[in-house]
Amino acid sequence: MTRRDGKAARGICAVLGIAGVAVALAAALPFPAAAHSYKFGEIAVGHVWAPPAAQDAEGVPIYGPLLNRGKTPDSVVGASSPIAGSVRFRVSKDGKTSWPDSIPLPPGRPLGLAPWRVHLWLTGLKRSLKNGDRFDVTLTFAHAGKHTVQVLVERTAGH
Fold first, then answer.
1. Are residues 71 and 136 in the same domain?
2. Per-residue pLDDT band at 9 (split at 50, 70, 90)
3. Could you give the CA distance from residue 9 to residue 24 in angstroms, rounded to a whole number?
């Protein structure tokens, strides 16, 4: 290795070390301070979002990551929102739609609520949802209880 290669390698290591410290500090912050994320006991909920929708839309999906950090299984068994008549669990796959009764959260396995897998589905909207709007959704977990998260309306998951 030449002197120049050694300097480049040390520079890369320094940048990676700084990045590692930044990640560790972000992980140590309480969840509400980490932009738009939540922790309810052993359940972590990441950035939750929904696409914009007109008031006459048939339904609106809600997406975002969930993680059970505990050692025992939990599940989302219900959801509600003051801006919708109902909130259900929905899966659309291969042109077929199903409506599961719950969303299982096995220990240590992240789950992303996404268009191609299970997600929340709001119907009976009481107002239109425009880019930049926010609204609350209360999630009911079998073991972790009821907790409210804020949903950000945006065209794609960004934030």
1. yes
2. very low
3. 22
39 and 86 belong to one structural domain: yes
- 65: three-class secondary structure by DSSP: strand
CA–CA separation, 115 vs 64, rounded Å? 10
Residues 23 and 68 in one domain: no
pLDDT tens digit string along 97-122?
999 999 999 999 999 999 999 999 99
Any alpha helices (H) in 40-143, and if so which ranges?
Answer: none
Task: Give which of 73, 119, 80, 113 is closest to 99, Cα–Cα.
Answer: 119
- Of how many residues is the chain composed? 159
pTM of this structure? 0.75
Q: Which pair of structure tokens corresponds to residue 106?
A: 């096995």
Residue 124 inside a domain? The answer is yes
